[in-house]
What we know:
Blueprint (H helix, E strand, L loop, with lengths): L2 H8 L1 H11 L19 H5 L5 E4 L9 E11 L7 E7 L1 E6 L2 E6 L8 E7 L7 E11 L15 E6 L14 E4 L3 E4 L13 E5 L21 E5 L13 E3 L6 E5 L3 E6 L14 E3 L4 E22 L4 E7 L33 E6 L6 E3 L5 E11 L5 E12 L7 E3 L5 H15 L17 H14 L4 H12 L20 H18 L2 H19 L38 H21 L2 H22 E2 L4 E2 L10 H9 L5 H13 L11 H10 L11 H8 L23 H9 L2 E3 L6 E4 L8 E8 L2 E9 L5 E17 L2 E14 L4
Parallel strand pairs: 6-13, 11-19, 27-30
Antiparallel strand pairs: 1-12, 2-7, 2-9, 3-6, 3-8, 4-5, 4-7, 10-11, 14-22, 15-17, 16-22, 17-20, 17-21, 17-22, 18-19, 18-21, 23-28, 24-25, 26-27, 28-29, 29-30, 30-31
Helix pairs in contact: 2-8, 5-6, 5-7, 6-7, 7-8, 7-9, 8-9, 9-10, 9-11, 11-12, 11-13
Amino acid sequence: MNTIQSRRAAHAFPLFLFFICAAGLLPxxxxxxxxxxxxxxxxxxxxxxxxxxxxxxxxxPAAYGVYHFRKTFSLNxxxxxxxxxxxxxxxxxxxxxxRLASLGPARCDVYNxxxxxxxxxxxxxxxKNTLAAVVWNYADKKPAAxxxxxxxxxxxxxxxxxxxxxxxxxxxxxxxxxxxxPWTEWKVLGYWAAGPxxxxxxxAWPWGWERTDFDDSRWPAARAGQQGAMKGARxxxxxxxxxxxxxxxxxxxxxxxxxxxxSGVAVPEGFPARTAASIIPANTTARLLLDNGAxxxxxxxxxxxxxxxxxxxIGYAEALHENNLKATTKxxxxxxxxxxxxxxxxIFIGCEDKYIADGGAGRxxxxxxWRTWRYVELRVRTxxxxxxxxxxxxxxxxxxxxxxxTFSAPERPELNTMLDIGWRTARLCANESYMDCPYxxxxxxxxxxxxxxxxxxxNTRDARMVKTAIEQGRRSIAPDGLTMSRYxxxxxxxxxxxxxxxxxxxxxxxxxxxDEEYLKTLLPAWRGVLSFFEHYMKPDRSLxxxxxxxxxxxxxxxxxGGEPPREKDGGSAFQDLLFIMxxxxxxxxxxxxxxxxxxxxxxxxxxxxxxxxxAKYWDAExxxxxxxxxxxxxxxxxxxxxxxxxxxxxxxxxxxxxxxxENKTVTQATIYFRYYLHQAMHKAGxxxxxxxxxxxxxxxxxxxxxxxxxxxxxxxSDCHAWGxxxxxxxxxxxxxxxxxxxxxxxxxxxxxxxxxxxxxxxMPHPDGDISASYREDHAGALEATLALPPGTDGxxxxxxxxxxxxxxxxxxxxxxxx
Length: 818
């Protein structure tokens, strides 16, 4: 028996307990936010749907392709309601009488395949009506976040007999769009996982296909395949249809801020702030570089007339790059971006689409999938006809979050700028799921997502994405109990720390939103994750080398792809401390709504590990924890976790954090791990140093970034939501607002004013708002005005003294001596 097998046998107790206690906790259907059972007819929830998945006859179901489907029907009168359920594989856009009604399905997997429920009655009329959908299958070129059954398909199901006329089947007509092909003749600097560009030959495009007056009489009947069925249907082998847990994305028009560069074309006055046409002569090469003024996500809209045979390459970039003529490899580190406003002398490197004009009037090119850009480059080569660029706009697209916070610090206006940049970052990194970055990957990594979820709960009233992300962690779990690092994803990858952060994210959701009935269903999954780690427990109560990619941070001192130093046998303070923190969070939830025996087991395990940390990793000479027992490397990361895990407390924790903040020879936390560093500072009583430790964000502002980057310069991605943690900490640390009980029922207010004399703000709470206003005079007297939501109470903590708080508005005046 090998070493790991021996360990597994030694720790069989929690596995046995896991299976016993899991019984009955997981319902057949998890009703996520956004699911309204009243909108889905009971017959559709229990039985196979009358509607069938359809595709185009004669076309290989697994190949790349873009397809159109149409259904024309008549109504005696305009209906008050007309509810349909719609989905596709890979994706669809649905038009009703020529108007865009829905895009989807929301990111999903085969066992939880999303469908959107729509009431399209406002778009219908008495008489003739047309439903039209464009469906596309990326096949082997799909983005990593795109999952698939491997077959093109489209389905629409009417909710009741009154809507069954639109059910998909052979009554629908269809067409393969031969104008479309993938466009991949471009490269970016760094890892790319967001799929191909699009090439459209307008001469083959079925213009007007979505309109009611389009003649589809020559289109063949669709090929009807398998019936649809919701998740839980008996012996159903297809996509397990599940109501989308999220709303449709926000869409609104945006106009570019300026033309940064132009050649071969005269830029009309007022463009691009307003519509104005440009003419590119025949047989001309032209270039137009447009600056949006800030990073955005959405759909580019290119409005054209004429120009038959003209080729237009549309490039999208977050910023332009310095031209490094000496570079021998295409690395983003060798082509720095420098100031994001500057374009002169720089080169454009980015993803692309291609459009070939057909000479028609009123043409509009919009890609099927959204793009990310601050800069858009048009490279145009006309043929024998001039091309008219009538207009170029964007349609912003992102999850429809609404800001529900306010903040004022007149002495430090830069803090509002930071919040604005953070809010934009968080918006752009949330579409149908949270995403690490909108440009390069568009993947929901659970380490990133924990921070994004906290931003959501501190800045908005909408926790649907938080709950959906937690659920997608469950759906990603592999047979050995570990979550994938990112999900949905068609390419599996494992980062064990992210599985632990996924448990911690569940604890965060519990503390700030409650929802114990749902979280109870997750206990078996969390037990599985912790059992995976427990398999690697050594007799000395530390973890052996946990496999896969043990990513911690893109820190300069972590040489192996962001992994902290680990010994050959796995000895690692980072591993042990993070496991302790996850055990503590899981034990607290087990005590509250799970199994007391499992809670005790987790407490015993974390307690036993805690007792060994100082002996293994404490460096008495440096007076800090080393990364490994060899004590030849040190990091802010490990000492941060030591404070958060309460290995050191009180004055010792304050002294430790003071040393690791001042000692620049230890590995420094970068943008991502600063989230935890700032929490440790506050826990150790050093929250008043928060503003002194925001230089990494000031540096980005000085470079003209409009969103927070993945890492310090040189950066690959200019938009990573893990960098928006100040949108949490200005409220949690500076204003001091935090949850002191599950569901935010008790509120702890412990401000760290960082020397500010006048600061105020408000943030959302499940039952209303929490507001705080502080005025401190030069003698040190504090006037704190606080408002708590109904049904809550709390405590104000100031200079180690506590003052009770109640629901409603109250002002507390504290003299300097206190």
